[in-house]
Write a structure and sequence with these properties.
Number of domains: 1
Order of helices and strands: HHHHHHHHHHHHHHHHHH
Strand content: under 5%
Number of helices: 18
Largest sheet: none
Distance between the termini: 26 Å
Number of strands: 0
Radius of gyration: 21 Å
Helix content: 55-70%
C-alpha cells in the first residue's frame, strides 16, 4: 500500500512541477481572469528557498483550491474570491479549511498552503488504509491491494494531492463504513457528521449506513473469514436497537454549517443557492443530463483530434461508462450498502448539469467512491492479466489530467 501512495503522489508531483516549470500558461499572470489571488496563488515570496517551495507546493493550487486556501486563512467573508470574481465562499464546506486553519494555517498564507497539502496527503493515506481494510473484509486481501492501486492511480487522482476535500472525504466516508461494519455506530455517526461538514453529498451517507444497520452483518468477521460473495451473504437484522439513533448524528455537519451561514450571511441555504454562480443553475433528470453529455461528446468528436484530446466531455463520458458498469457489477458482488452509497452519491451531479459540460467533475466525484475501486480491484485480480494494463492506462491518464489541471484546463 505504501508503494501505491508514494509512487502515485510522486507521479502527480513531478507531472505538475514539470508542467508548471516548462509551460508559460501556468504562470500567475496567465491564470484565468479573476482566479489569481495575491498571496494565495504564490505565497512564498522571493529567494532560492521560496522558489523551491513554490515549485513543490503551488503547481496544484488551481480552481477550487484557491477558495479553500482563502477560506482557511480569512474565513467566509467577504463572499467572493477577488473583486469582480463570480462565485461565493458558502459553496465550500467548512471542515477541511477549518482543519487547515487549526493545524497551522493561521500562521500565514505560506503555512496555509503547506498545511493544506500535508493534510490532503495524510488523509489520503488514512483513506487508503481504511479502504484496504474494507476490501479485505468484503473481497479478500488480493482484491484489497488492487483496490488501493485503483484509487491511487485513478485518472482524476491529482486532487488527492491538491488543497481539495477529496482526501478528507475519502477518509471519513470510508471510515464511517468501517465503523458501521464493526457495529461501532457512535463512531459511524460521528464520521458521517464529519462527511456532511466536508461536502454537500456527505449528508447522504445516512442512507447506506441505515441500510447497513437494517441489512447486514452484526459484527466484523474473523480475520480469516471467507470473502464476501455479494449482497446475498447479508440478511435483515431485527429487532432494531437504540443504537440506530447514532445515525441521527450524520446530518449534524450540514445543520451546523447551515446555522453558521444563517448567522454569517443571513441565508442558511447559501451552500445550495450559490451553486448557480458555479455553472449549475438548475435541477433536472439524469436522462436529460446524460443527453446533454452525449451531445457534448458528439460536438467533441466533430472537432477532430483537437476535440478528442482537449474536450473534457470525452473523459466525462468515459467515467460515466465505467460508473454504469461498476454499479451493475457491485450489485452482484458487494453487499448492498456499497451499491446504495455509490448511487446516492452520484445522483447530485447527475441532476445538476454544468453549463457546456454536463458531467463536469464526474471523474473527480468518482475518485472518492471507494466501492467502485473495491469492485474494480476484485475484477482486475480475478482476471489477472488486466490489472497491469489498467494501471498503465490509468497512470497515463493521471499524468495527462494532472498536466491539464496545472495548465488551468477545467478538469474539475
Amino acid at each position: 500500500m505504501w508503494v501505491a501512495v508514494l509512487a502515485s503522489r510522486l507521479l502527480v508531483a513531478i507531472s505538475a512541477a514539470v508542467a508548471a516549470a516548462a509551460l508559460p500558461v501556468t504562470k500567475s499572470y496567465r491564470a484565468p481572469r479573476g482566479k489569481l489571488v495575491p498571496g494565495i496563488s504564490h505565497p512564498f515570496g522571493h529567494g532560492w528557498l521560496s522558489g523551491a517551495l513554490d515549485a513543490v507546493f503551488t503547481p496544484l493550487v488551481r480552481w477550487d483550491g484557491l477558495w479553500y486556501l482563502e477560506i482557511s486563512h480569512h474565513g467566509y467573508t467577504p463572499s467572493g474570491l477577488v473583486p469582480n470574481n463570480p462565485g461565493a465562499r458558502p459553496a465550500f464546506f467548512p471542515l477541511y479549511p477549518l482543519l487547515v486553519h487549526a493545524l497551522g494555517g493561521w500562521a500565514g498564507n505560506g503555512a496555509t498552503l503547506v498545511v493544506a497539502t500535508l493534510l490532503s496527503l495524510g488523509a489520503f493515506t488514512v483513506g487508503l488504509l481504511i479502504v484496504h481494510r474494507l476490501a479485505t473484509l468484503e473481497l479478500g486481501p488480493r482484491a484489497a491491494k488492487a483496490a488501493v492501486l485503483v484509487i491511487a492511480f485513478w485518472p482524476a487522482g491529482a486532487f488527492f494531492s491538491a488543497p481539495y476535500t477529496e482526501s478528507l472525504f475519502l477518509a471519513v466516508s470510508a471510515g464511517a463504513f468501517l465503523a458501521a461494519r464493526g457495529d461501532r455506530w457512535w463512531l459511524a455517526g460521528l464520521l458521517g457528521a464529519a462527511a456532511s461538514a466536508t461536502r454537500n453529498t456527505g449528508v447522504l451517507l445516512v442512507i447506506p449506513l441505515l441500510v447497513m444497520y437494517l441489512y447486514g452483518p452484526r459484527s466484523t468477521p474473523a480475520p480469516h473469514a471467507q470473502p464476501a460473495t455479494g449482497w446475498r451473504r447479508w440478511s435483515p437484522r431485527f429487532p432494531v436497537r437504540r443504537d440506530i439513533l447514532w445515525l441521527a448524528l450524520v446530518p449534524l455537519g450540514l445543520v451546523a454549517y447551515s446555522l453558521y451561514l444563517q448567522a454569517e450571511v443571513g441565508n442558511w441555504q447559501a451552500w445550495r443557492t450559490v451553486q448557480t454562480e458555479f455553472g449549475r443553475p438548475h435541477i433536472t433528470t439524469p436522462i436529460t443530463t446524460i443527453h446533454l453529455a452525449l451531445t457534448g461528446v458528439y460536438h467533441a468528436l466533430r472537432g477532430g483530434w483537437e476535440g478528442i484530446v482537449y474536450d473534457p466531455n470525452i473523459l466525462d463520458a468515459l467515467a460515466l461508462v465505467i460508473l454504469i458498469i461498476a454499479i451493475v457489477g457491485m450489485a452482484r458482488r458487494l453487499p448492498l450498502p456499497y451499491t446504495v452509497w455509490t448511487v446516492v452519491a452520484v445522483t447530485p451531479p447527475l441532476v445538476t448539469p454544468f453549463l457546456g459540460e454536463a458531467l463536469r467533475s464526474l471523474p473527480r466525484f468518482m475518485a472518492v467512491l471507494f466501492p467502485i475501486a473495491m469492485w474494480l480491484g476484485y475484477e482486475l485480480t480475478r482476471h489477472r492479466r488486466l490489472l497491469v494494463p489498467w494501471l498503465v492506462v490509468s497512470g497515463a491518464m493521471l499524468v495527462a489530467t494532472t498536466v491539464a489541471f496545472t495548465l488551468w484546463y477545467p478538469f474539475v
